[in-house]
Structure formats: C-alpha cells, structure tokens
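Quick one, tokens below. Sequence please?
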C-alpha cells in the first residue's frame, strides 16, 4: 500500500473509533455539575464564590473550597457550549473528539517526523480502542481536555529540545489555557520540570566526561515562561502548590501505613474510586483488562531499554516522564488516562528513532499482538456491539435517577432531601432550583462528606444525622453500579418504621419520612419495603450479565436468602468456594452474613 492509502486507512480507523464512542450514553457522574456550573458561569458572567446548588455547603465558603469551584471554569464553559450547540449529542460528540484527537495527533506527528504510517497507526491503535471502549466516560468532563493538551505539550517540548522558539512561545500560551481548563495542568508542570531536570542531568554528565556541549537555554527559559504562564488563572499558584504538596504528603503517608489502601486523609480520597491504585480495580472489581495495559507498559519499557542500548544514548527526559506517568497511573487511578496517551506517544517516538534498525519490527508486531488479543478477548464477546458505530438512542445513562426525578417533579415532596453522592451532580442538573442537594461529586466540605457517608453506610448514629438535618425524603440506589455491592441505607430502612418506601424502579429508591405532611403521598404511593430485596436481585442480574464477577452472584444470593428463597441462594453460593463468599460478604464490613434483619451482605 502507498503512503496515501495508509493515510486514508488511518482516517477511516479514527472515524470508526469516533463512531464507537457514540455508542455509549453519557456515563460520568461529574459531567452534570460541570455542565450546570458552566451554565451558571455563562449566565452570571462571573466565577462562583459560593455554592448555589447545595444546602449543606458553608456560607461563606472557606478559601480552599472556593478555589475548587473556580479551578475548571473554562473547561466547564467548553462542555456547556457543546451542550448549547447540539444538546446531549453535542456533549457526546465533544467527548468522542477528546478520545480520538490525542491518538490522531500522535499519528500525524509521527508521520510528519518520518515514521511509516502503518507503524504510526499501530502505535496509537491500542490506546485509541482502550479509551473508546473501556474508559470513554472519563472524557465527559474537563479532565478529558487535559489528556488532549498533555499530548500537545509533549510535542511542543520535543520541539523546544530541537531549539524551536515557536514551540517555546506556544507552550507558554498552552499552559495558560490549560490552567483555566482543568487542574491536570499540574501534571503538565511536573512533566516540564522532568524535561528540564533530565536535560540538565544529561548536560552535566557530558560535561563531566569532557564533552564541549552547551546547555539548551531555550528549554530552561521556555519552561520558566510556561510555569509562570500557568499562574494566569483565578487561583494563581495556590492550586499548584496545594495539589503538588498534597499529593506528595499523601504519598509519604501511604508509605508509613505500608502498601495497601490508603487510610486517613480527606473523605473523598478514601471513598472515590479514582483515588484507588489500579491493583484495587484488578483484584477487587475484577478489571482483568488492566493486564493488557500493564503488558503495553512493560513492552514500552523494554523498547526503551533496547533503544538506549542500540543508540548508546539514554534519553533522560523521556525516561523520567515514562516512569512518572506509569507510577502515577498505578498509584492513583485517575492518572491512567494520562498514562495511556503519554505512553502511546513515547512508544511511537521510540519506533521513530529506531526506524533505521530492522529489529524495530519486533516491537511493531508486539504492540499489534497486544491490540489483537485484547480486541479478541474483550470485544468479540459481550462488547461486540461496541464495534457497530452508531449514535445511541439514549444519551443519559439509565443508572441516573431520571425516573425518580420525574416522580419528585410530579409529587412535589417537600425538601430537604438526602441524596446519593454520585447522583448529586445529575440532580443539580435536572431538578435545581426546585431541590438543592445534600452532597454531590464536588465534595466541597469534608465534614458534610463524612456525615453523608455515615448515613449511606448506616454507621452508628445515622438516624440522628437524618433528624439533625431535618431530612424529609431520601433518594438512593439499592446497588452500587460500579462494584455490585449492596447499598446499606435502603436495606437498613426496611425495618425502620420512621421511613416509608414510595418509589422503586431502575435501581432508584425514594423513601419519605413517616410524618403527617407526607400522609397523602404514603397512602397513594406506599410500597412494601421488602421490594428493595427484589430490586437487588434484578439489578444484580443486569450487572452480572457479562459474567466473570462473583460479587454480583453472591449479593444476589444474599438477597434471595433474605427473601426466603434458600434453595436458590444455596445453588448460587455453591458456585464459589467459601473464602470467596466470605471475602465479598465482609469486604466493607457493613453487615454480618447472618444478621437478624433481612439485609444482604456487602455494601
């Protein structure tokens, strides 16, 4: 095939990947409050200094919480602008572009530098498919723009290393833009510093060996300008300082607590899944596809070692950056998407630098093999429908409480409400200002976060918190969709006479306080609270459709046992050894297996 034929094939591939992204409904819980904040910013023409969406946020907000509200204002405006252009389709298409463009830019850059198109395409194919099918939802908020900008920053840094002054100027403008889009610009600052440190170390080593080499002053001045430009945001350099030293502090604290899940710290760091290491997702949530990401990482490290040996030269900025992003991703799952795009860039760059060595075809074959095996294992089965590019009929994921929201709008149940943390953003988007939320994905106040968590997980004193906040109704799921564990609160409410179930559908439960003001609603919509257990069975059936995860089966069996279907429950229990059942039933220690109340284990 000729060069242009390969270019056409590459365009068709990226168009196909873009089509895959439109298969999926909008699925990230933080998207919704980002959209609402972007709308608020455009309508008021000002950045938020207070929280209009939640009735539990302090007023006035502490300084650090105000910083969080302003940190992503431009990214939020960009997402809301996409919504204004074409509604949810506009947001979905914007998401697709953010997924495809980083790998497309890698392809274009590699080909422009002289790499054969088929090798450039192979370098970007794995990352493009992995993000489009497995990690699409992470691109539904401003951080998705960060992943794209990170590739542009790397391309400019490579230009600065070749003493391209235009690249230095553009990098400063890029960092100023990035600092207003998303806090991920701090990763950009770290990478810039790694390039400076790597070049300095390399220059120093060469000088020690007696080589007459000059330092790359353009890199130093360009890095300084870029870092200073990143301070052109509403928070100045305060956000950079807080994030960098906060991450370092948490890292050293984790070392003190030895290897394992983090302890202490802010509530959001201990509860939100993105703050967990990748090994947690592999072991506890059965994300076995991570094996292919780790294989890709290992393949890149081997490629780098071969390149350095064959060229008799070590590229320290490159090596430091690869080590950093790999460690960052494995330690802190939110870094996974940065890692995928950055590692793909360096894989292609290494093939480019070895293009004159015949042995490089081995690494081309290796990455193609990983991509093919992954596609065979994870796409040819239950995910095969994802290979049929189309525009989804339902842009809002069914896991969000659309049905419950319609019920609230119809019944006009009086506030205040207690709501599930993950649903807070959607409630802000869909039913504000009629209702303000108890908590949402911004997690602004740590005290409120801890109270919300204690209620959701039925920790001792949870009823007192509901009374203290005068909660009139509760809106929660019965199963955590991310893990398949049962939500403790609705199960605890089954035997609590103070609360009545008035709505239950699509993993959405609404309980109202058993008070005179709610008498008409209870009489008209009241349900048997043990229907919660039946809903658990139905939801676990849906979650477990793809198979392979015992969490869904064991929690379904627990619910059946609580309903009195002992024989069916025992058949499900027998599918797994006792240590698996005990691990799942006691993982979060919310409920003992043989609790007196009809409460399925897990949480």
């Amino acid at each position: 095939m000729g060069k242009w034929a390969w270019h056409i094939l590459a365009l068709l591939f990226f168009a196909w990947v873009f089509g895959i992204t439109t298969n999926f409904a909008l699925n990230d819980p933080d998207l919704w409050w980002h959209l609402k904040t972007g709308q608020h910013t455009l309508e008021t023409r000002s950045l938020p200094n207070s929280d209009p969406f939640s009735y539990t946020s302090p007023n006035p907000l502490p300084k650090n919480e105000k910083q969080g509200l302003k940190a992503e204002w431009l990214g939020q405006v960009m997402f809301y602008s996409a919504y204004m252009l074409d509604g949810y389709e506009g947001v979905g298409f914007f998401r697709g572009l953010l997924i495809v463009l980083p790998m497309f830019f890698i392809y274009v850059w590699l080909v422009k530098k002289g790499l054969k198109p088929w090798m450039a395409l192979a370098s970007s194919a794995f990352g493009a498919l992995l993000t489009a099918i497995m990690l699409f939802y992470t691109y539904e908020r401003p951080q998705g723009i960060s992943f794209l900008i990170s590739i542009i920053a790397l391309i400019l840094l490579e230009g600065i290393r070749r003493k391209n002054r235009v690249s230095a100027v553009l990098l400063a403008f890029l960092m100023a833009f990035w600092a207003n889009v998303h806090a991920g610009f701090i990763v950009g600052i770290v990478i810039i510093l790694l390039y400076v440190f790597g070049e300095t170390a390399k220059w120093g080593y060469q000088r020690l060996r007696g080589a007459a080499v000059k330092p790359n002053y353009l890199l130093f001045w360009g890095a300084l300008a870029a870092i200073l430009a990143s301070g052109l945001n509403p928070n100045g350099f305060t956000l950079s300082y807080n994030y960098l030293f906060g991450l370092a502090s948490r890292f050293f604290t984790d070392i003190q607590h030895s290897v394992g899940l983090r302890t202490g710290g802010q509530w959001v760091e201990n509860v939100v899944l993105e703050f967990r290491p990748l090994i947690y997702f592999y072991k506890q949530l059965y994300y076995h596809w991570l094996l292919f990401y780790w294989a890709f990482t290992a393949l890149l490290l081997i490629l780098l070692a071969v390149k350095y040996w064959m060229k008799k030269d070590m590229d320290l900025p490159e090596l430091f950056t690869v080590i950093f992003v790999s460690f960052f991703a494995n330690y802190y799952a939110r870094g996974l998407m940065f890692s995928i795009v950055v590692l793909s860039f360096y894989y292609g760059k290494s093939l480019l630098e070895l293009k004159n060595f015949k042995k490089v075809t081995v690494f081309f074959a290796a990455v193609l093999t990983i991509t093919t095996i992954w596609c065979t294992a994870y796409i040819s089965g239950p995910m095969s429908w994802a290979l049929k590019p189309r525009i989804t009929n339902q842009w809002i994921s069914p896991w969000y409480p659309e049905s419950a929201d319609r019920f609230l709008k119809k019944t006009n149940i009086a506030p205040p409400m207690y709501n599930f943390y993950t649903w807070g953003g959607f409630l802000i988007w869909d039913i504000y200002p009629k209702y303000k939320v108890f908590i949402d994905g911004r997690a602004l106040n740590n005290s409120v976060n801890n109270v919300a968590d204690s209620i959701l997980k039925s920790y001792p004193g949870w009823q007192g918190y509901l009374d203290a906040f005068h909660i009139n109704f509760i809106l929660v799921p019965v199963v955590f969709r991310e893990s398949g564990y049962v939500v403790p609160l609705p199960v605890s409410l089954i035997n609590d006479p103070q609360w009545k179930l008035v709505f239950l559908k699509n993993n959405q439960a609404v309980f109202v306080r058993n008070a005179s003001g709610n008498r008409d609603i209870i009489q008209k919509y009241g349900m048997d609270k043990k229907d919660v257990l039946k809903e658990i069975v139905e939801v676990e059936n849906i979650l477990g459709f793809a198979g392979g995860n015992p969490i869904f089966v064991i929690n379904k069996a627990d619910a059946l046992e609580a309903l009195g279907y002992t024989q069916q429950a025992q058949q499900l229990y027998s599918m797994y050894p006792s240590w698996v059942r005990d691990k799942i039933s006691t993982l979060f220690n919310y409920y003992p297996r043989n609790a007196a109340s009809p409460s399925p284990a897990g949480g």
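The chain has 26 helices and four strands. The longest helix spans residues 73-113.
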